[in-house]
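Re: the request from the purification team.
They wanted to know what the chain is likely to look like in 3D before they choose a buffer screen. I agreed to run a prediction and write the result into the notebook, where they can find it.
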Amino acid sequence: MRNLLLLAALFHATWFGFISFTWTINHLVAAVIGIIVTIAVGLTLLLREDHLPRVIVANMAGLIALSGWGGWLAIQLLDDGPVVHLYALYLPLASAVVFVVAAFLSTTPVNRSPGA
């Protein structure tokens, strides 16, 4: 699962960079692709991962990514002018950071002594 989360982080960072710096793809298509990949990663993690803290943090990253890509989608559908909303611009990058944090969470439980 660590590799899946690192790939999700890589996808969100590179997809955001591709869209932001090349501008050759329609933003509606890019946002829909980002949303589909985010949902696929979240469902895979929910079905296959058994370490609850990693699932929680990775799904928080997924919600951040969905908010960001959904913001891109809403901006393109609702606003015709050249408007840039910073929350939609930087949330996919923030989700990439949270995906990396989720990938490196320890999977071993912490052993505590009974008297502590």
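For the purification team: Residues 2-103 form one domain.
Please add any questions underneath this entry.
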